[in-house]
Recover the amino acids of this structure.
């Protein structure tokens, strides 16, 4: 592979050497030069937001716009209003975060864009062409959402052309000590105090914890005990 994995980690602030994490980065770099839709899956707090940027910056669209959309927070219809995201991102990449939260009516509009490359702005009668690459992310079980009637199966097929799975922190325990040292050094710099160091027993304890909040939870813990200890 022509792109150096370590350089990618440094550029996008990804800490860790877990084989599962490295594999996910390799897949992102392999699919980046194409225009395939990508679905990034993983639990909340695993760092999914870095991967659309890796894909965009290593694609032919890297000089085009990059727009991130929180699908759980957008009003109905905003995806394609008169100055909507598809027009703004023409020639670039749209990152649809928490795509599983899209309302069904908006899912139908998104499917049309993926199938035809065009959309009808709210209040207009004629379709507008757009050239965007879709990268989506979710922390929900999408097949389960399809089975419950909350997500269109045909849209899932279009979004999930290339899936990238990010491992939860408990499946990359070898990175926990490294991540803690990084977060502790950041906290020390921010709060002007010595860097907290863990005894081996403490590292062992962290490596065997379940981490439901993943990297976000580990960062919060490092911040908290850096201040309190």
């Amino acid at each position: 592979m022509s792109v150096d994995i370590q350089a990618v980690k440094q550029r996008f602030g990804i800490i860790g050497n877990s084989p599962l994490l490295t594999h996910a980065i390799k897949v992102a770099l392999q699919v980046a030069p194409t225009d395939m839709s990508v679905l990034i899956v993983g639990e909340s707090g695993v760092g999914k937001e870095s991967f659309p940027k890796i894909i965009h910056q290593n694609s032919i669209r890297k000089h085009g716009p990059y727009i991130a959309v929180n699908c759980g927070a957008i009003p109905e219809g905003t995806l394609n209003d008169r100055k909507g995201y598809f027009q703004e991102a023409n020639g670039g990449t749209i990152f649809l975060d928490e795509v599983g939260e899209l309302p069904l009516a908006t899912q139908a509009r998104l499917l049309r864009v993926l199938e035809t490359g065009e959309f009808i702005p709210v209040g207009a009668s004629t379709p507008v062409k757009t050239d965007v690459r879709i990268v989506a992310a979710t922390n929900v079980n999408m097949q389960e959402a399809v089975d419950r009637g909350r997500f269109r199966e045909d849209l899932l097929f279009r979004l999930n052309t290339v899936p990238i799975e990010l491992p939860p922190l408990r499946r990359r325990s070898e990175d926990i000590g490294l991540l803690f040292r990084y977060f502790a050094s950041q906290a020390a710099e921010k709060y002007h105090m010595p860097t907290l160091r863990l005894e081996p027993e403490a590292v062992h304890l962290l490596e065997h914890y379940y981490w439901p909040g993943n990297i976000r939870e580990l960062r919060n813990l490092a911040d908290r005990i850096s201040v309190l200890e």
